[in-house]
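#onboarding

Welcome to the new folks! Below is a worked example of what a typical request in this channel looks like: someone posts a single protein sequence, and someone else replies with the predicted structure as tokens. Don't worry about understanding the tokens yet, we'll cover that in week two.

Example request:
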Amino acid sequence: MQRNHPVTVFESTPFDNGVLSHQAIQELQGLETQTFFVKDNTEHIDDKDKYVFSSFGSKKTVCWRYVGVIRTSDGSVIEILPKIYRNHDEKKDSARKLLCRMLKRSGLLTYRTAKSASLAAGGHTLLEIFVHAFLSEVQRLSVHGLQNDYIKHEENRCNKKGRINFTQQVRANAAAAHKLYCTYDDYCPNCIENALLCSALWKITRITASLANKRLAKQLLVFFDGVSTIPNVENRHFDQCRTGRLMKRYELALSFARFILLIPPTLQCGAQNSVAILFDMATVFEKTVEKTLQQSEQLTNFKAQKSITWFSGLASPRPDYQFETTEKIVADAKWKFLESNKLSKNDQYQIFSYMQATRSKQGAILYPSISEHPTERSFNSKIEGCNGTISLVPFFLEKLSVNFSVMNMKNSDF
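Example response:
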């Protein structure tokens, strides 16, 4: 049963199984994190929470931690939006737009054209936004011309071209002296990179519900005349792609093609029309905060995910961020809601151990906020001989900015 309209749900929020077909629910609950890619060629593997979806009671399903879009084999489209707006169902467009901005700021997904960003505010699904971003990149490539490569050919010809393969000549042309079995290189656009892009364009013509996207995909296929497609795309095909100065302009388009072409194992039934583009929201938030802090001119000695000295024989911890303003600060980003202005014990112990290991007197826990009056609190140490402060610092999602004024620093806003 194919759904005419996409189903929009929020991360960490249960939804009724009745909004999807039984087949789609089974496929969702079988999706594993090992099948998805977060950035470039890096696979995101999470053995602790293996499955993206899980049952919530007997009649509901919930998606933990992941956001993005999935198209199942029966044609159902499910988009998962950040949980920060889960109590504001009327703000789905705002949640969709926020996710696109965070993906762009974090560098986990990049698009160049302004129209791709504006699609997020126009009620379009994430699938159509990703598809349009890919099409825009391919369109940019086609304007400047596709990259050619030398492709090896072996052919039984009536005239000589390249070199004669004498072994095959004896086998194939013993009774046909007028034929020549030749091996030659042809400089043409039928290379692995263009084949992947062409395969992605053909798939888009089947999966997109947007007439504009479908029309643009068909128009772009004209530029790929003579380029073959790959029936079953695998990781090894992307591993064969060339790197270097000439192929730099292909990187973004190929990263989109990876999302579109690589199919989760649980969606093999009707796999040619299935898509899964998912991101770990905790990673998205951490990277967004990281890029925001890196852009600040008021921070010095900024380090992200830098290992610190620890006990011998034990794995070294890595705080999310270390930097200096008027004094040394260690900080950690948490994609979670703060209830009753309280920190969980695990978060308290974690940031305190970071402060001790880095000899920092200031520790900060950054959390997402869409409120105009977010929670800002500082907790001073009462431990004898251990002066320090742990602060709750909101990260404003609307502006993608952070304010450390709660820590009473001279340079408070950046």
